[in-house]
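G., before I forget:
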Amino acid sequence: MNNLARHPKLVQFAALLVVFFILCFAIEPSENNILWRLPAFLSAVPEMLNNSVEFIMFEWIPIQTYNVEIEDYEESALMIEITRSMSRAVLFGIEFIREILVGGQKTIVAFTSWDFISENDWAYWPALPWTVVAGVGITLGYALSGRWLAILVGCATTYIAVFGQWVPAMETLSFVLIAAPASVVLGVFLAVLAFKSKAFENALMPLLNVAQTMPHFSYLVPVTVFFGVGDHAGAIATVIFATPPMIRLTLLGLKGVSPEVLEAGMMNGCNKVQLMFKVLIPTARHDILVGVNQVIMQCLAMAVIASFIGAKGLGFNLLLALNQLRIGQALELGICIVLIAVVLDKLSLGWANKQIDYFADLSFVERHKYSLIMTAILVAGVVLASIGSLIFKDGINYFYLIPHNQGLTTENFWQSGVDWIVDNWYSSLQVFNVGLIVNVLIPMKNAYLSMPVSATFVLVMGVGYIVGGLRSALVVGGLLLFIASTEWWDRALITAYMATFGVLVSVTIGLISGSLCAQTRFTTKGILLVCDTFQTFPSFIYLIPVIMLFGVTDTSVLIAVIIYATIPATRYTVEGLSNVPQSLLDAGSMSGVNRFQRWIHIELPLAFPHIMLGINQTVVFALFMVIIGAMIGTDDLGQLILKSLSDEFGIGNGLMLGLCVAFIGLAVDQILRTWASERKKALGVA
Amino acid sequence: MTNETSNSTNSSTANDDHPVIKCDGVYKIFGDNTAAMMAKSNGNIDVEAFKEAGCIFGVNNASLEVHKGEMLIVMGLSGSGKSTLLRCISRLTDTTNGNIFIDGEDLLAMNAKELMELRRNKMGMVFQSFALLPHKTVLENIAFPLQVKGTSTEDSMKRAMDMVNLVDLTGRENYFPRQLSGGQQQRVGIARSLAVEPDIWFLDEPFSALDPLIRKEMQDEFLRLQEMLNKTILFVTHDFDEALRLADRIAIMKDGVIEQCDTPANIVLHPATEYVAKFTNDVPRERVLTCENVMEDIGIDSDLSELKVPRNAVIETVAEAILSEDKPVAVVDENNEIVGTLHASHVIHVLFGKDEPKPASASQATGV
């Protein structure tokens, strides 16, 4: 009894559970019972959204535009002209870079016309030989960061070329080279505005919260409506998706600049522009670079997802391969994406770390060493390619471009590996698979579906109240109310069940492996490296091996969810545990604790707020993966989002569904974050 | 509460010897109600009423003057408002009420551009946490104020290199701040603040973040630089010993109020308030007082010893010689004329008794 009195929150939670279960059993499951399911108040909203978008897009503010084809003026809506010209600009950028890398005619067309091309056979921009791109990349790596980066770039480009993925890889690269800088610039710009104006920040923050918990897919629907389908639409969706973390990290960095550094800038006589660009932004460099890194990762993650709306490149091929269940090929493509991600990441870091020597009295050659080397590489590559055209008689010049079907491939190896697994392990895997589905997943799903909506409200708002007071309860309740008022409550429950299962397993694995690895310095470093590496993989990649093993089932999705969501759980556990002050550990040792006691009594309680933030991340990761799992076939919200993509009037549904997913994430986020910050305050480690 | 600066409201004294920095009744008040309360008060600030309205006084009616080539040290414990006062004078924060003049120009009336020009050409500041730009090398940091001014890269780098040599960091100019020790970082901070050859030098607890031995070393370095450059200095510290060691004059602050502003010797000998006295109690007086501070008038007894000591010699340096004499020792001025006498027993009495020395002679020691 004493124990209970000492933990008032425990009593509150127990009471809440009792009420929850009473409600669960007392409420009659009937469609007309408002306590069982809320009527879909919001079912008309998607239609309204569709109509208003339609209006804005095609009717709002008509203007006269000149149509070249009919050689006359015609009426067109302002919005569609704006989005059209944006599309054209983005597309031009992508095509331009793409044609430098792999050759083409569209840039020439942009300045002339298709007629010009057909009249002049010479009007074709030749691709750079792959050796030149690789050589320039290697030189750049060496110039920016030294030998190791050069070797990495060399290996990556050679791998991509030799495995015959050069063209799609360059297509992806051109897409990233437009989308990433655009996101970075936009992100820094908005962050600076938010830093300058508190009102703007207050307006921006909730938007960012929603944006960062919306699943990737739901960005695609509105983008297709406004910008159509194609590389440009993919790039725009990517920019929208990749900008929020950039804003957040830049703002974090700007706010973290010590006031004395700011004052030093002012006392040195900086004007406002100098203060921002010479003092604040460079000083916040570290956070901004993390942001750039994030942007590159998001761009590559989106490279796959954007192929749903017509972005060409590795992602598109990967999607095809997955659809055809060609696991080996998917794996190779996945590795290419990861390689591009790693190389771009390291190059951008190297660039940011560069410094100048002011007193070096250099000659012209020394000053322009790298440009000269690159020019030499260009010449050498072109010469090599010409020689190649003489050597290789069958029309394929390996020194110029290795086409897809002529590259090396390990596909057969992987495919036979998969076949071997299917042949030998199929029955045991199947037993596990069926056992999991029948004994765990289906009962869990049914339990979720048999929850009356009122009981869910009581439970979730109750937890919100106990953890964060009335405000949290209302926020959480509001988010829930939105989902309950749509017609997809049951679907949301399925999403929730999958995410819950994934999170529970991930957190368990993460806590255990994290705690074990945090015991020694060596394993700590090791596991963080593993987490870093795995985080570089675009989320889609995780689907490849699980389909290999478990085929197209819920189990596959859940295992992908678990692998993906275990990363933040492990990382935050390790970080939290290794940030426990040494003095406390020493105090524990001097009190004579053993390792286990130290873990239970000292490390875990102190690290728990940080671990809580990790769990928060785990939830978001799990939700994303559950939605992406719709690719394999699930019956939750994700499936509907995917469907709305192919629907002409999908924008309303797509957005509402996206919001539903985002709000599940935000509700959890609200509770966990409040709890973590309360604990941090209580422990004085904020 | 003695403010030895004049309280004259007439600021436009057409005097050649006008102070470089002049603060007149400066207030810095924090709190949400401040603006409303100020509007109500019509310039007559009633401290109690403001405090009742939830306002906090960072600086409370501070007046001081710093003359050319003088070093004024503002001393106070944390929260005393010393850094706030410095930030008012450098206009890093806005002053709530009062007047501040830099070289006779009204600082608070300046627009952003004038202020920027003033800072680019006349002011230098050193910060407690060094405040170096982490992405720039030592050289780039020092050249920074010159570059924002628009000096060409070549010139500013040359000048920065001179400054590197001045603060003894030769050979480390291409290091990044994170690769330097605290003392070295502050040398960079000092070099940066001096790069534009400012007339006025602000130092905000420059040595507080350093270890005691390094602090001592940096103080010596600082005195060496000041001897060479002869800047007008406003120096903020919480370390009374540091203040005694470096200052021409010390202003002691408590709760935003300047409790006393005077020479180190006068503060030690005549603390104006009990608060000031608490600091002075444990001060080794022999290190602060000069012969002039403790000498007696030339009495009838002219039976002096052969030894003569200069009047501005610190007691510590001459104590042993005085104590080994039986007869009183003569104190002489610059022209070798006898201005007073010192008797060993009297010296000991002043140094170790809690008694004050003769007020008559001490009062001569005011001024710069």
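Chain B touches chain A at residues 87, 90, 92, 112, 116-117, 119-121, 123-125, 127-137, 139, 144-145, 148-149, 153, 157, 161, 174, 192-193, 196, 202 (CB under 8 Å). The CA atoms of residues 139 and 161 of chain B lie 7 Å apart.

More on Monday.
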